[in-house]
C-alpha cells in the first residue's frame, strides 16, 4: 500500500551516480536493444503524436491573433517551449513589454533547471550539447529520465529530441496555415493548454504518488492570487517551493528522531534493528515510520 | 518599434531565457546531483507547477458568467476524469478541448 516512493531516502539511485558506471540496475545484455536513431524516433512517437492536436491548436491561435503563419513556425522552432508559446502569444498580442516577457519565460520555464539532474547530456558530443540543452523540453526530459537512458547513444537521444521538435513545428505550421479557414465563431482552442497542464500534472502526481502535492499547490495558487493581484503564477510557484522545503525539513527531523529511537531500542532490548524495521514497514503503522522514509500522508 | 521588430525581439528574448534555463544548470547542478534536497525538489516540483499553471490559465474566467464558466468547468472535469480513468494523454486533451470549444462557441448564443 504505502510503498513511499520518496526519493529522499535513496539518493544513491541517481545521486551518487558518477556518469553511467554507478547505474548498475537492469542493463539489457542485448546490445541491439540499445538502438540508435530509429530507436529514438520510436521513443519519440507517442509524445510527437500527442503534440499534434496541441500544435494545431496553437497554430490556429496564431492565425486567429492575426499573425502571419510563419510566426507560428518561428515560435515553434526557435522558442520551442510548448506551454510558454501559448503564453507568449497572449503576451505579444497584448503588447507586453520585453522585460515582462523575459520574466514570464523565466518563471514558467524555471522548472527546466531541475532537468539537468538527470538528462544524459554527457552522452552527447561537443556541439550536440548545444542542441541537447536547447531542445530539453518536458517531453524530451520525461523520455530520457530513466536510469537506462544514462547509457543511450547520442543518436538515440538526439533522435528523440529532433523527432519531437519536428512533430511540434510541423503541427504548428499546419495549424497556422489552415487557421484562416477556421470560422471566427469557433473559440476556446486555447483550452488545449489547460488540458496539457492537467495531463502533465496528473502524470507527475501518479509517478510520485504524491497525493497532497496538487491540493497544496491549489492552495498556494489561491493564496498568491488573493494576496498579490496578478501574482498567482509567480507567487503560487514560490509558495509551493517553500512548502517543499518545509516538508523536507520536517521529514528529516522525523527520520532523525525515529532513527535515534530505534538506536535506543536496539541498544536496550537487543532486538535486531533490521528486523524491527522490516516489521514496522510491513505493518505500516503510522507511529512506527521506518527511518528516513518520507511520509506522504497529510 | 515596428510590429515585426517587436515580435522578433520577443521571440529572441524568450528563446534566450528558455535556453539559459535549460543549459546553465549543467554547469553547476551536475556537481550537486547528490544533494537530496535538490533531488526532492526536482522530483516534486512538476506536480505543483502544473497545478498552478492550470489555475493560472483559467483564473480570469468569471465564475458567475455561465456562458464562460460552464465550458471551462466541463473541460476541466472531462480532461482530468478521462486522464485518471484511461491515462491516454491524446484522448484526454482531445476530448477536453473539444468539449470546451463546442460549449464556448455555442453556449453564449444559446444563453443569450
Defining traits:
heterodimer, A: 298 residues, mainly alpha, 2 domains, globular, disordered N terminus, disordered C terminus, B: 112 residues, Branched-chain amino acid transport protein (chain B), transmembrane (chain B), Brnchd-chn_aa_trnsp_AzlD (chain B)
Plain-language structure description:
Chain B: This is Branched-chain amino acid transport protein. Chain B: InterPro entries: Brnchd-chn_aa_trnsp_AzlD. Chain B: Keywords: Membrane, Transmembrane, Transmembrane helix. The complex is a heterodimer of chains A (298) and B (112). Chain A is mostly helical. Chain A folds into two domains: 35-208, no CATH class; 211-298, no CATH class. Chain A contains eleven helices and no strands. Chain A has helices at residues 37-64, 69-79, 82-93, 98-109, 128-134, 138-143, 154-178, 191-208, 212-227, 232-269, 273-283. In chain A, helix 1 (37-64) crosses helix 2 (69-79) and helix 1 (37-64) packs parallel to helix 7 (154-178). Chain A is globular, with a radius of gyration of 23 Å. Chain A starts with 36 loop residues before the first helix and ends in a 15-residue tail after the last helix. The model of chain A is unreliable at 1-32 and 272-298 (pLDDT under 50). Chain B has 112 residues and is an all-alpha fold. Chain B is flat, with a radius of gyration of 20 Å. In chain B, helix 4 (66-86) packs antiparallel against helix 5 (89-111). Chain B has helices at residues 3-23, 25-28, 36-58, 66-86, 89-111. Chain B is built from five helices and no strands. In chain B, 82% of the residues lie in helices and 0% in strands. Chain B has two domains: 1-33; 46-111, no CATH class. At the A-B interface, helix 1, helix 2, helix 3, helix 4 and helix 5 of A face helix 1, helix 3, helix 4 and helix 5 of B.
Amino acid at each position: 500500500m504505502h510503498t513511499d516512493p520518496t526519493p529522499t531516502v535513496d539518493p544513491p539511485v541517481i545521486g551518487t551516480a558518477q556518469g553511467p558506471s554507478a547505474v548498475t540496475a537492469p542493463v539489457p545484455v542485448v546490445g541491439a536493444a540499445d538502438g540508435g536513431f530509429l530507436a529514438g524516433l520510436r521513443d519519440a512517437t507517442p509524445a510527437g503524436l500527442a503534440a499534434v492536436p496541441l500544435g494545431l491548436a496553437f497554430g490556429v491561435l496564431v492565425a486567429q491573433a492575426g499573425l502571419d503563419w510563419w510566426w507560428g513556425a518561428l515560435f515553434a522552432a526557435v522558442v520551442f517551449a510548448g506551454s510558454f508559446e501559448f503564453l507568449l502569444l497572449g503576451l505579444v498580442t497584448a503588447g507586453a513589454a520585453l522585460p515582462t516577457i523575459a520574466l514570464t519565460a523565466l518563471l514558467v520555464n524555471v522548472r527546466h533547471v531541475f532537468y539537468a539532474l538527470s538528462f544524459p547530456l554527457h552522452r552527447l558530443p561537443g556541439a550536440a550539447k548545444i542542441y541537447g540543452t536547447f531542445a530539453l523540453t518536458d517531453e524530451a526530459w520525461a523520455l530520457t529520465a530513466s536510469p537506462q537512458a544514462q547509457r543511450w547513444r547520442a543518436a538515440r537521444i538526439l533522435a528523440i529530441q529532433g523527432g519531437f521538435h519536428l512533430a511540434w513545428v510541423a503541427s504548428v505550421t499546419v495549424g497556422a496555415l489552415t487557421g484562416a479557414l477556421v470560422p471566427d465563431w469557433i473559440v476556446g482552442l486555447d483550452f488545449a493548454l489547460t488540458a496539457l497542464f492537467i495531463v502533465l500534472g496528473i502524470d507527475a502526481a501518479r509517478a510520485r504518488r504524491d497525493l497532497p502535492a496538487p491540493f497544496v499547490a491549489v492552495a498556494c495558487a489561491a493564496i498568491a492570487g488573493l494576496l498579490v493581484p496578478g501574482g498567482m503564477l509567480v507567487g503560487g510557484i514560490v509558495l509551493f517551493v517553500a512548502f517543499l522545503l518545509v516538508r523536507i525539513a520536517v521529514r528529516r527531523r522525523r527520520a532523525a528522531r525515529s532513527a535515534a529511537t530505534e538506536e535506543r531500542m536496539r541498544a536496550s532490548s537487543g532486538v535486531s534493528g533490521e528486523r524491527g524495521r522490516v516489521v514496522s514497514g510491513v505493518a505500516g503503522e503510522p507511529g512506527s515510520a521506518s527511518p528516513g522514509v518520507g511520509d506522504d500522508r497529510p | 518599434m515596428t510590429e515585426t521588430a517587436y515580435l522578433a525581439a520577443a521571440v529572441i528574448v524568450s528563446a534566450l531565457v528558455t535556453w539559459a534555463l535549460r543549459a546553465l544548470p549543467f554547469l553547476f547542478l551536475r556537481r550537486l546531483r547528490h544533494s537530496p534536497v535538490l533531488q526532492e525538489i526536482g522530483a516534486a516540483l512538476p506536480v505543483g507547477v502544473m497545478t498552478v499553471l492550470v489555475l493560472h490559465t483559467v483564473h480570469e474566467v468569471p465564475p458567475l458568467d455561465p456562458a464562460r464558466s460552464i465550458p471551462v468547468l466541463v473541460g476541466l472535469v472531462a480532461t482530468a476524469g478521462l486522464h485518471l480513468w484511461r491515462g491516454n494523454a491524446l484522448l484526454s486533451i482531445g476530448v477536453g478541448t473539444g468539449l470546451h470549444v463546442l460549449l464556448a462557441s455555442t453556449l453564449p448564443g444559446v444563453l443569450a
